[in-house]
Amino acid sequence: MKIGVLALQGAVAEHVKSLEKAGAEEVVTVKRRRDLEGLDGIVLPGGESTTIGKLMREYDLLEPIREMGQRGVPLFGTCAGLILLARRIHGQEDVHLGLMDVLVDRNSFGRQRESFEADLEIQGLEGGPYRSVFIRAPHIMEVGTGVDVLCKFQDRIVAARQGNLLGASFHPELTDDIRFHRYFLEMVRESRCIAK
Ligand code: GLN
Protein backbone atom coordinates (compact mmCIF):
# COMPACT_ATOMS: atom_id res chain seq x y z
CA MET A 1 0.00 0.00 0.00
CA LYS A 2 1.51 3.30 -1.12
CA ILE A 3 0.09 6.57 0.16
CA GLY A 4 0.96 10.06 -1.03
CA VAL A 5 0.77 13.25 1.01
CA LEU A 6 0.33 16.41 -1.03
CA ALA A 7 3.37 18.45 -0.04
CA LEU A 8 2.88 21.93 -1.46
CA GLN A 9 2.15 23.63 1.88
CA GLY A 10 0.94 22.81 5.37
CA ALA A 11 1.19 19.97 7.88
CA VAL A 12 2.91 17.43 5.65
CA ALA A 13 5.51 15.74 7.87
CA GLU A 14 2.92 15.16 10.61
CA HIS A 15 0.65 13.32 8.18
CA VAL A 16 3.54 11.19 6.93
CA LYS A 17 4.38 10.23 10.52
CA SER A 18 0.78 9.42 11.43
CA LEU A 19 0.29 7.31 8.29
CA GLU A 20 3.46 5.33 9.02
CA LYS A 21 2.40 4.82 12.61
CA ALA A 22 -1.03 3.69 11.41
CA GLY A 23 0.57 0.97 9.30
CA ALA A 24 1.01 2.36 5.79
CA GLU A 25 3.78 0.39 4.10
CA GLU A 26 5.06 3.25 2.00
CA VAL A 27 4.39 6.96 2.33
CA VAL A 28 5.68 9.48 -0.18
CA THR A 29 5.34 13.24 -0.53
CA VAL A 30 3.69 14.58 -3.66
CA LYS A 31 5.18 17.67 -5.24
CA ARG A 32 4.88 16.95 -8.92
CA ARG A 33 2.84 14.89 -11.29
CA ARG A 34 5.15 11.88 -11.45
CA ASP A 35 4.91 11.47 -7.66
CA LEU A 36 1.31 10.34 -8.19
CA GLU A 37 2.35 7.16 -9.97
CA GLY A 38 1.22 3.99 -8.25
CA LEU A 39 -0.49 5.72 -5.33
CA ASP A 40 -3.30 3.83 -3.60
CA GLY A 41 -4.48 6.86 -1.64
CA ILE A 42 -3.72 10.56 -1.18
CA VAL A 43 -3.86 12.84 1.85
CA LEU A 44 -4.59 16.53 1.29
CA PRO A 45 -3.29 18.33 4.37
CA GLY A 46 -4.32 21.54 6.10
CA GLY A 47 -2.76 24.88 5.35
CA GLU A 48 -4.40 27.58 3.28
CA SER A 49 -6.75 26.25 0.64
CA THR A 50 -6.43 29.19 -1.78
CA THR A 51 -2.65 28.87 -1.76
CA ILE A 52 -2.63 25.08 -2.03
CA GLY A 53 -5.23 25.22 -4.82
CA LYS A 54 -3.15 27.76 -6.71
CA LEU A 55 -0.01 25.64 -6.35
CA MET A 56 -1.89 22.51 -7.42
CA ARG A 57 -2.81 24.29 -10.64
CA GLU A 58 0.71 25.60 -11.14
CA TYR A 59 2.31 22.20 -10.58
CA ASP A 60 -0.21 20.46 -12.80
CA LEU A 61 -1.60 18.34 -9.98
CA LEU A 62 -5.21 19.45 -9.85
CA GLU A 63 -6.49 17.55 -12.89
CA PRO A 64 -4.62 14.28 -12.23
CA ILE A 65 -5.71 14.17 -8.58
CA ARG A 66 -9.29 14.94 -9.61
CA GLU A 67 -9.14 12.08 -12.11
CA MET A 68 -7.79 9.73 -9.47
CA GLY A 69 -10.61 10.72 -7.11
CA GLN A 70 -13.15 10.11 -9.87
CA ARG A 71 -11.61 6.71 -10.51
CA GLY A 72 -12.18 5.77 -6.88
CA VAL A 73 -8.72 6.29 -5.38
CA PRO A 74 -9.32 7.23 -1.71
CA LEU A 75 -8.63 10.88 -0.88
CA PHE A 76 -8.46 12.23 2.67
CA GLY A 77 -8.74 16.00 3.11
CA THR A 78 -8.06 17.63 6.47
CA CYS A 79 -9.03 21.24 7.15
CA ALA A 80 -7.86 23.11 4.02
CA GLY A 81 -7.80 19.66 2.38
CA LEU A 82 -11.53 19.32 3.01
CA ILE A 83 -12.03 22.68 1.27
CA LEU A 84 -10.01 21.39 -1.68
CA LEU A 85 -12.30 18.37 -1.96
CA ALA A 86 -15.58 20.29 -1.74
CA ARG A 87 -17.92 20.74 -4.68
CA ARG A 88 -19.10 24.09 -3.29
CA ILE A 89 -17.44 26.76 -1.13
CA HIS A 90 -19.69 29.27 0.63
CA GLY A 91 -19.39 32.80 -0.80
CA GLN A 92 -16.90 31.76 -3.42
CA GLU A 93 -17.35 30.96 -7.09
CA ASP A 94 -14.16 28.99 -7.62
CA VAL A 95 -13.68 25.52 -6.24
CA HIS A 96 -10.64 23.28 -6.45
CA LEU A 97 -11.07 19.52 -6.91
CA GLY A 98 -14.85 19.86 -6.66
CA LEU A 99 -15.33 16.16 -5.95
CA MET A 100 -17.18 15.82 -2.66
CA ASP A 101 -20.86 16.70 -2.61
CA VAL A 102 -20.61 19.15 0.28
CA LEU A 103 -20.92 22.90 0.80
CA VAL A 104 -18.15 24.15 3.09
CA ASP A 105 -17.80 27.38 4.97
CA ARG A 106 -14.24 28.54 5.60
CA ASN A 107 -12.92 29.89 8.92
CA SER A 108 -16.28 29.21 10.50
CA PHE A 109 -15.56 28.92 14.20
CA GLY A 110 -15.05 32.59 15.04
CA ARG A 111 -12.01 34.71 15.53
CA GLN A 112 -11.46 34.56 19.26
CA ARG A 113 -11.48 30.79 19.01
CA GLU A 114 -9.30 30.49 15.98
CA SER A 115 -7.59 27.55 17.56
CA PHE A 116 -9.05 25.06 20.02
CA GLU A 117 -9.37 21.38 20.82
CA ALA A 118 -12.43 19.26 21.45
CA ASP A 119 -13.13 15.62 22.28
CA LEU A 120 -15.50 14.28 19.67
CA GLU A 121 -17.36 11.07 19.02
CA ILE A 122 -16.67 10.05 15.46
CA GLN A 123 -18.69 7.42 13.68
CA GLY A 124 -16.49 4.51 12.69
CA LEU A 125 -13.78 5.25 15.26
CA GLU A 126 -14.08 2.91 18.18
CA GLY A 127 -12.48 3.36 21.58
CA GLY A 128 -13.98 6.59 22.88
CA PRO A 129 -13.76 10.26 22.05
CA TYR A 130 -11.23 11.55 19.59
CA ARG A 131 -9.21 14.66 20.48
CA SER A 132 -9.61 17.08 17.59
CA VAL A 133 -7.52 20.16 16.90
CA PHE A 134 -9.30 23.00 15.09
CA ILE A 135 -7.21 25.75 13.47
CA ARG A 136 -9.17 28.35 11.51
CA ALA A 137 -11.33 25.39 10.63
CA PRO A 138 -14.06 25.10 8.03
CA HIS A 139 -17.31 23.27 8.60
CA ILE A 140 -19.70 21.50 6.28
CA MET A 141 -22.96 23.43 5.85
CA GLU A 142 -24.75 20.98 3.57
CA VAL A 143 -24.23 17.44 2.35
CA GLY A 144 -25.60 15.65 -0.69
CA THR A 145 -27.46 12.35 -0.47
CA GLY A 146 -24.39 10.15 -0.97
CA VAL A 147 -22.51 11.70 1.94
CA ASP A 148 -22.34 10.13 5.40
CA VAL A 149 -21.94 12.52 8.30
CA LEU A 150 -19.31 11.10 10.67
CA CYS A 151 -19.21 13.82 13.28
CA LYS A 152 -20.91 17.00 14.42
CA PHE A 153 -19.61 19.63 16.81
CA GLN A 154 -21.78 22.51 18.04
CA ASP A 155 -24.42 21.33 15.61
CA ARG A 156 -22.03 21.68 12.69
CA ILE A 157 -20.77 18.88 10.51
CA VAL A 158 -17.01 18.51 10.97
CA ALA A 159 -16.31 15.09 9.43
CA ALA A 160 -17.92 13.24 6.54
CA ARG A 161 -17.38 10.52 4.00
CA GLN A 162 -18.64 10.01 0.49
CA GLY A 163 -17.45 6.65 -0.81
CA ASN A 164 -13.72 7.05 -1.46
CA LEU A 165 -13.67 10.65 -0.18
CA LEU A 166 -13.02 11.44 3.48
CA GLY A 167 -12.97 14.92 4.95
CA ALA A 168 -12.40 16.44 8.38
CA SER A 169 -12.51 20.07 9.54
CA PHE A 170 -9.81 19.43 12.11
CA HIS A 171 -6.23 18.13 12.14
CA PRO A 172 -5.93 14.39 12.93
CA GLU A 173 -2.19 14.58 12.22
CA LEU A 174 -1.55 16.90 15.17
CA THR A 175 -2.25 14.39 17.93
CA ASP A 176 -0.83 10.96 18.71
CA ASP A 177 -4.21 9.33 18.11
CA ILE A 178 -3.89 7.51 14.81
CA ARG A 179 -7.41 6.11 14.60
CA PHE A 180 -8.51 8.51 11.86
CA HIS A 181 -5.51 7.63 9.70
CA ARG A 182 -6.19 3.95 10.36
CA TYR A 183 -9.76 4.47 9.19
CA PHE A 184 -8.44 6.01 5.97
CA LEU A 185 -6.00 3.13 5.43
CA GLU A 186 -8.92 0.75 5.85
CA MET A 187 -10.72 2.64 3.05
CA VAL A 188 -7.61 2.22 0.91
CA ARG A 189 -7.49 -1.52 1.61
CA GLU A 190 -11.17 -1.88 0.72
CA SER A 191 -10.76 0.04 -2.52
CA ARG A 192 -7.79 -2.12 -3.51
CA CYS A 193 -9.89 -5.24 -2.99
CA ILE A 194 -12.62 -3.82 -5.19
CA ALA A 195 -10.11 -2.83 -7.88
CA LYS A 196 -8.63 -6.32 -8.07
N1 GLN B 1 -8.61 28.56 6.98
C1 GLN B 1 -7.91 27.75 6.05
C2 GLN B 1 -8.55 27.86 4.66
O1 GLN B 1 -9.59 28.41 4.51
C3 GLN B 1 -7.85 26.31 6.53
C4 GLN B 1 -7.11 26.22 7.84
C5 GLN B 1 -6.34 24.97 8.07
O2 GLN B 1 -6.13 24.15 7.17
N2 GLN B 1 -5.83 24.83 9.26
O3 GLN B 1 -7.97 27.37 3.73
Automatic annotation (TrEMBL):
GO terms for cellular component: cytosol; glutaminase complex. Pathway: Cofactor biosynthesis; pyridoxal 5'-phosphate biosynthesis. InterPro entries: Class_I_gatase-like, PdxT/SNO, PdxT/SNO_CS. Its EC number is 4.3.3.6, 3.5.1.2. CDD domains: GATase1_PB. One of its GO terms (molecular function) is glutaminase activity. Signal peptide: none annotated. GO terms for biological process: L-glutamine catabolic process; pyridoxal phosphate biosynthetic process; pyridoxine metabolic process. Transmembrane segments: none annotated. Gene3D superfamilies: 3.40.50.880. It catalyses: aldehydo-D-ribose 5-phosphate + D-glyceraldehyde 3-phosphate + L-glutamine = pyridoxal 5'-phosphate + L-glutamate + phosphate + 3 H2O + H(+); L-glutamine + H2O = L-glutamate + NH4(+). It comes from the Bacteria. L-glutamine binds at residues 47-49, 106, 135-136. The active site is at 79 (nucleophile), 171 (charge relay system), 173 (charge relay system). Keywords: Glutamine amidotransferase, Hydrolase, Lyase, Pyridoxal phosphate. In the presence of PdxS, forms a dodecamer of heterodimers. Only shows activity in the heterodimer. Catalyzes the hydrolysis of glutamine to glutamate and ammonia as part of the biosynthesis of pyridoxal 5'-phosphate. The resulting ammonia molecule is channeled to the active site of PdxS. Belongs to the glutaminase PdxT/SNO family. This is Pyridoxal 5'-phosphate synthase subunit PdxT. It comes from Collibacillus ludicampi.
